[in-house]
Amino acid sequence: MSVLRKRGLSLFLFLTLLLSVLSGCSAGEETLLLDRPVEERVGVSETLHYKSSLDFSYAKQVAVDFFEEGDVLLTAGDDRQYLLVPEGGTVPKDLKDGVFVLKQPLERGYLAGSASMDYFVACDALSTLAFSSLKASAWKVPAARKAMEDGNLSYAGKYSTPNYELLTTGKCGFAIENTMLYHSPDVLEELESLDIPVFIDLSSRESTPEARMEWVKVYGLMTGHETQAAEAFAAQEKEFRKLGETEQSSDAPKVAFFSIHSNGTVSVRLGTDYIPAMIEMAGGEYLFSDLKGEEGSYRTTTNISMEEFYRRAKDADFLLFNSTIEGERSSVGELLQDAPVLADCKAVEAGRVFCTTEDFYQHTMAQGDFVRDLHEMLTGGNRFQYIFKLD
Fold first, then answer.
1. Is the Cβ–Cβ distance between 109 and 128 less than 8 Å?
2. Could you tell me which of 42, 25, 21 has the C-alpha nearest to residue 33?
3. Which of 235, 234, 216 is nearest to 226 (CA)?
4. What is the set of domains in the chain, with CATH numbers?
5. What is the pLDDT of residues 172-224, one digit of tens each?
6. CB atoms within 10 A of CB 321
7. Are 111 and 176 in contact (CB under 8 A)?
8. CA–CA separation, 188 vs 197, rounded Å?
9. What pTM was estimated for this model as a whole?
């Protein structure tokens, strides 16, 4: 990779991050492509003629545009654009700089954004992957673990330290990453220099669970499994519709969704995140809905002191511990070892303390099931799939 190209890519990454922070800050500033007229978004080549766009019902962080020639343009909420070139097609010679090319059929992919695995499984496209950033023991998605145990999926290093030699000799055709890659720009540079196109998944930036799940349609298009993707999304959407009539009353049960770091601070979701949205869908009130984060920021969590958490959560009706960060807790007693101050919280005294299963974060296409679990929790039920009660 030439020094000039490396500098150009580094500059692109810097500008991408800067634009993500500044976008939407004030009128008159540069706006994201997603917020501009479609003709500005699709002007990537004079040889491609715009045909139509995919009408998303919920997703806001991605756009899909179809060309008459059969090519498909993906535009993400960080202004990265990807051109899907159909099998047998050619890349336009005048393709705009900065548009990344994904040639179909996509084969031998490296999945380094673990939350994206469920999309591939849901649309029956797991066979398009050959490499994983997790070892078999770390996968909570059964199909992914079996693929690794059967030798159809190989461990190729963490997202921040991929095994470039294995990816190269193994003829890796593409990589799926999440926004954590922006903390390791050298990895992105190296993958691109090896002619491994990188697709960065922004589904975690969506503010509702339906929007996050609708990204399965993007993966369906990429892998040629549009029908399976649509069916998978429709199945989960039904779960939301079943709870669509749930009304949030003024005395809705108050829920604290949190995790405790080893240093004693507490991680809570910002009110703009999709987890608070699911709590409200289930008929509850998220205690920290007033925490919005900085304007233009895509952060979904924030850390507060244990004292601040206790002050706000002591009268919560339910405590729901998020096992994603520090693992599951097996009992209320184990939780209180981390935070003895919580012993006199209303939820603890009433026996309404719950924990998410450790595999929940990998089941991206189970958001509807999780809302159903939350509704069961709030209404005294006991049929859970992704949460359990701490005794």
1. yes
2. 42
3. 216
4. 3-239 (3.40.50.1980), 244-389 (3.40.50.1980)
5. 999 999 988 888 889 999 999 999 999 999 998 888 899 999 999 999 999 99
6. 25
7. yes
8. 9
9. 0.82
